[in-house]
Design brief:
Layout: E1 6-9, H1 17-25, E2 31-34, H2 38-46, E3 57-60, E4 63-66, H3 68-78, H4 86-108, H5 117-143, H6 155-170, H7 179-189, H8 192-197, H9 210-219
Parallel strand pairs: 1-2
Antiparallel strand pairs: 1-3, 3-4
């Protein structure tokens, strides 16, 4: 019997949420350990668990992996979500990097000072509708296939679906000008593993609230 991957992070989205999405999309069950105090975090560093003194930490296949991108690349490769050849892998990596840039803005939004929230939300809207979503709308329209690369479910599809839902939480009508992305979202919602992850009671975390922000600041305070 194989050991489930073990994820160590806070009880919230942050940089771990994309990893949860990818494991769930691959149909992999996992266990989680939640950091709630600075002492827990400091102990991980002291015990040599965190190579660069940062979480996420994912224990998988006998490895203690850090660095979000490396973790996700390993999972995508292990579960055949990283393309059939180098060219497909390059496209998937390129799309994932682009989506990650948008996700970084969403990740930092809860930590915005109150007087900057409106401006930062406008920045997310502008980037999503003018820079990132048009790219994927065009890709899907040009090749007329269900998925972004090679007409096969991949890491890039998972990442895009996560980003779409994250932006929609803040801007519910953001897809109004993107018919291909609307169809993509519907199809992705019906992929069995994604559908399961979107159900109540799954490991998917809710949008960050004040308690989550407070916990992050407490655990990682200098």
């Amino acid at each position: 019997m194989s050991v489930k991957p073990r994820l160590t992070y806070l009880n919230g989205r942050g940089r771990m949420e994309s990893i949860r999405w990818l494991l769930a999309a691959a149909g992999v069950e996992f266990d989680e350990v939640y950091l709630e105090t600075k002492e827990q975090y400091d102990k991980l560093i002291k015990d040599g668990f965190l190579l660069f003194q940062q979480v996420p930490l994912v224990e998988i296949d006998g490895m203690k992996m850090v660095q979000t991108r490396a973790i996700m690349s390993y999972i995508a490769g292990k579960y055949n979500l990283h393309g059939k050849d180098l060219k497909e892998r390059a496209l998937i990596d390129m799309y994932v990097e682009g989506i990650s840039d948008l996700m970084q803005m969403i990740l930092m939004f809860p930590f915005s000072p109150p007087d900057a929230k409106e401006k930062n939300l406008e920045s997310i809207k502008e980037r999503a509708t003018n820079r990132y979503f048009p790219v994927f709308e065009k890709i899907l329209k040009q090749h007329g296939q269900d998925f972004l690369v090679g007409n096969k479910f991949s890491w890039a599809d998972v990442q895009l679906m996560e980003a779409i839902l994250a932006v929609e939480e803040k801007l519910p009508t953001v897809l109004s000008g993107f018919p291909q992305l609307q169809v993509f979202k519907t199809k992705m919602s019906n992929v069995p593993t994604i559908k399961k992850f979107l159900q109540p009671g799954s490991p998917r975390k809710p949008p960050p609230d004040a308690h989550y922000v407070e916990t992050v600041l407490k655990v990682f305070k200098k």
